[in-house]
């Protein structure tokens, strides 16, 4: 066994986040009498992405992101709604959106049977991620989840991975592999922590200069040949 410890990102690596997000957003719109259209979701998505990028760069807090996205969204549409209530209902619906990506369950079952120790490493909202994990097939396959707001640090900071290492004293730079779709959080984080990494890149995006990428896969089944 080359890598005993496998550290998986959750959204867009194991879970279909766009599908869960769009459905949760639609439910929120319905509950608050907000027009749900492709344009309104695109607007929300752009605002949300901009704010999460700022979070990844350490410029704002997660609490700021989750509320401010609805403040800006409602202001842009000139709608008088409670942004905190919109965010609360969106997160509740998101926590119920459990859509594993193709082959994710089968691959993780095979890895579990081989004896790998698997953990989630994520910057997602803790209440949402815990809810989704509890309701998913991954609950029986993964030994734990390290969520940034509980760790006191977030990917890609070394402090976040130092926290993970403290919880897993048997993990080393030789026996652990970080698997994720994001160059800016998962792969950069692995680089910062000195850990091997595998970039899950089903869309065929271009690599970024200056990043070490030990493995690149477009299908999760390819992971079985690496670890």
Q: What is the mean pLDDT?
A: 96
Largest beta sheet: strand ordering: 3-2-1-4-5-6
Largest sheet: 6 strands, parallel
Cα-to-Cα separation, first versus last residue: 7 Å
Q: Share of helix among residues?
A: 40-55%
Q: What's the overall geometry? A: globular
Structural classification: alpha/beta
Share of β-strand residues: 5-15%
Number of strands: 6
Give the SSE order as H and E letters.
EHHHHHEHEHHEHEE
Number of helices: 9
Radius of gyration: 18 Å
Could you name the ranges where pLDDT drops below 50 across 5 or more consecutive residues?
A: none
Description:
This protein is α/β, with parallel strands linked by helices and 227 residues long. Helices cover 47% and strands 11% of the residues. The chain has nine helices and six strands. A six-stranded parallel β-sheet has the order 3-2-1-4-5-6, sandwiched between helices. It is globular and about 55 Å long.
Write the layout of secondary structure elements.
Blueprint: E1 5-8, H1 17-31, H2 38-56, H3 62-76, H4 83-95, H5 104-114, E2 117-122, H6 126-134, E3 144-147, H7 148-151, H8 158-167, E4 176-180, H9 183-193, E5 197-200, E6 215-217
Helix pairs in contact: 1-4, 2-3, 3-4, 4-6, 8-9
